[in-house]
Amino acid sequence: MKESFPSPESENKITREKVINAYKKFIERGIKNPDDLDLEDPEVKEANELFDKWREQEDESVEGNEESEHRINLSKTMLYVDAGFTDPVYLDEVLKDWLAQDAQNAEKQSDNPERVETRRQITEAVKRIRNLLAEQVQ
């Protein structure tokens, strides 16, 4: 029986969850907007570097695949939200700027099942942000 060993490439792969976890400690400290992070704080620098490396890795992995590029853009758009940043000003920016741009870039193509799924994911993200904003108003 042949043993399988993780390739060095897979060992070095940065997961989205690892990046999210790097930011969760700031949420636990009461920071609700990523713009409020102290860029001089070594932990913030470390989290930002991890995020940058993850973005580069993901961009390289989907290069040339338009549908995957749209989905990675959505994943990047939602990363801080998924980490727990809930400031209403920030969420409004995500909703009106970033998700709107993601939706515009992923134009409707009803004959393309992958595009239909990408647009469904964007719609779900919009609903999630709206729900988060509505919860804060109550």
Description:
The chain is flat and about 45 Å long. The chain is built from 6 helices and no strands. It has helices at residues 8-11, 16-28, 42-62, 66-83, 88-105, 113-137. It starts with 7 loop residues before the first helix and ends with a helix. The chain is mainly alpha-helical and 138 residues long.
Brief account:
The chain is mainly alpha-helical. 72% of the residues lie in helices and 0% in strands.
Features:
138 residues, mainly alpha, 6 helices
| Overall helicity | over 70%
Quaternary organisation:
single chain
Q: Quick one: biggest sheet?
A: none
- From the N-terminal CA to the C-terminal CA, the straight-line distance is 60 Å
Please report the number of helical segments: 6
Strands, total number: 0
Order of helices and strands: HHHHHH
Task: Give the mean pLDDT.
Answer: 91
Strand content: under 5%
Shape: flat
**Rg:** 17 Å
Structural class determined from secondary elements = mainly alpha
Low-pLDDT segments? none
